[in-house]
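Final report, results section. Input specification for complex C-07:
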Amino acid sequence: MDRMKNRKQIFLVFLVFMISFGSFAQSDLLEILDKEHSDSIRYTSATFKMTRIAIGHSTETRKKGILEVFSANRFWNTGADNSQSFFADKVSARIALEYGLSDRLSFGFGGTTFDGLFDGYLKYKLMRQRSGKNVSPFNITFLQASSYNSNSFRRIYGEATRSSDKRMSFTSQLLISKKFSSKFSVQLAPTFIHRGVVLSNEDPKNHFALGFGARYKLGNHLSLVSEYYYNANKLQSFDTYNPFVLGVNWEQGDVMLQFMLTNTRNMVEDTFITATRNNFNFRNPNLNFGFNATYVIHFKRGLKKKSK
Amino acid sequence: MNRLIFIILFFTLSMRPVENERIITRQGQVSFFSYTSVENIKAENNQVLSIVDLQKGTIAVSMLMNSFIFEKALMKEHFNESYIESDVYPKATFEGNIVDFDPSDKNDQTRMIRGTFTMHGVSKELEIKTKIERKGKNYILSGTFEALVKHYNIKIPPLLAGNIADSISVNFRFEYGPYEK
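Structure output:
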């Protein structure tokens, strides 16, 4: 009798199992698809939206065939008591064109009015943050920039020399960023700078710096950004400070705007990292208002080419 | 008793659908269009997954939002980061039934597919008129439907309201082959 009872129980369990199995089959179609998805590599997009966080470069590069018309402006007051200007005594502008040669490689060149620098850069995306199969936790981009000081040598050195190697400065940066969540991204930027323009023999020609940058998204189109560069060996002949920025990035389709408060007036890496003469505070000549506007033009339309 | 169990076991097992009654596509195409006087936006996704259980007439569709390709590369970034928020909602899915589907019919049929479409964390009941073509063991499902942007909790900033249509038309075309694990 006992054996019979046992069998009946087994049979019942089996029956229940089969029935429940049948009802599972309803929703398992999506589960099958989920398993198929898990094989695919997922690239993290838009760790930073713009090619700059505020003053310095971000790991982002523009995709192939995109031209960026970039204008950066800094406004500040002089320390003079009898300043008559309405908003700002001085203004500096950098106008630049930046172009994506491929989805990873882009270049740009520009000129700045205030310090007379003409600069150019190459930027290459070495690694993209991705999840799924073949995980990579970081974005890594390499930046090689150089600038040419067009000021007259008499103004710089007080004497005329002809050697042009004193006019060129070079910046190499390894930009490493990580998007921690959809709202929060962080960037570290070990930087090496070789300065051509040397005012005093006690000044180092080569500088090592470390950049810190972060973005926090306030809304879908608005984000709060901040950047700081620590310069390990500073200039000796005059006081310099590390540049700091607090800003807001706002993007509307093809137009991207950046508003910022900063203590640096320069806009090229080798100058704002090594030669920022003001500290970040609210006393008069120190604080600058910065405004960057980027207009994006697509020369390559992805879908049209595909459909050919 | 033993025999009874075996009979039932045999019966239940034979009732279960065999593997090749499911059909799958891994390169399904979904495209959407937004037409306004200011700007036309078009995007395509050619890696949409879909599976159909022919016996039950059920269908599931799943797509990764960041697999959509846009005419303008920057639009893809805006779409993923500022509108569809694909970090938080990476997928859009559909699960439903093909109403009155007859798997034995060898001709083309037009059927309604009724089910739940989930995108950007919002689920909506949809009814989509679908053309079902059959070529031997392969099936092609295609159709089009309209999705209202505001239904899916997608916010468009006032400055760009003129660039993006209120109603987005979505086209799909799935070519299925037999499903093997």
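DSSP finds two helices and nine strands in chain B. The first strand of chain B starts at residue 22 and ends at 35. This concludes the modelling results for the funded period.
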